[in-house]
Amino acid sequence: MNIGVIGYGYWGPNIVRNFNELDGVQVTAVCDLRSERLEAVRQRYPSTRLLTSDANDILHSSDIDAVAIITPVSTHFELGWKALSNGKHLFVEKPFTATVEQAEQLIELAEKKNLRLMVDHTFLYTGAVEIIKKFIDSGDLGELYYFDSVRVNLGLFQHDVNVIWDLAPHDVSIMDYLLNRSPRAIAATGVAHFDSDIENIAYISTYYDDNLLGHIHVNWLAPVKVRKTLVSGSKKMVIYDDMEPHEKIKIYDNGVNISPDKNQIYDYLIQYRTGDMIAPKVDLTEALVKVTREFQNAVNENRAPHTDGYAGLRVVKILEAATQSLRANGQLVELK
Q1: CB neighbours (10 Å) of residue 136?
Q2: Which domains occur in the chain, in start order?
Q3: Which of 93, 167, 209, 234 has the smallest count of CB within 10 Å of its CB?
């Protein structure tokens, strides 16, 4: 399978490296607007046949089977539409598109053309998230109470999207995958500093049925880098710390037991349960190895990839609703 990669900036080199390391896959073309980035490709991958600053050279090439779009989200729809229209399988960096309508149109076109469409929700392929998913699906956590995630650091400030569209797609995709249900409403608040209209701090709340609550904090103005997620259930609780080099996952047999007081029918007895903590071994295989292999397998097996267009659409729906709420000073936005 010959792949053309459009965009060789921050994330593009990782995509090119991992696709090139797969048996049966070759990155035959790379596009970037900057000549120095193309020179970097030429020096590291001299076998790359086409280096260009014009994306159309890749999109219209008859020698290319698939296209990976690693560019700003504002360009995803136009480039993705051209790739699919020219019969090429499509791999897209997160977030999938800038609007729900764009996502729906790309999904429809891919299905019409019988082409594979995959969104790079990288964290869903990490060993840590895979372990949490197994614990949830097995029932070991019990009834889920909340999902709480923090993703903060100092920078990198973006000029085209706010912090929600930059950082939150990671946590929203993890939340969507682990909870496996759609929220009924979204609320978001945030603020922009430095005489800018691009928010650099935001808080997103997602409301589900059965009193399940999701909360995500994203921030470009933190003194330290934090990547931490808590998932609480009626039986056990999980902490996922992506900055922890060894024990990324800790599962606590802690919780609260509530039972009616037999003597006072309107009162409740609250008992706190504190048990063992375990730190299961986490597969530390680079997630992009699994991501690129999944795309290759989905194309070869003519099936939908794990993070297909619909997974990308669900994330964009939450991001779009969060932005709408943010612009309305935190007003609750109901989702269909």
Answers
A1: 20
A2: 2-115 (3.40.50.720), 124-285+317-334 (3.30.360.10)
A3: 209
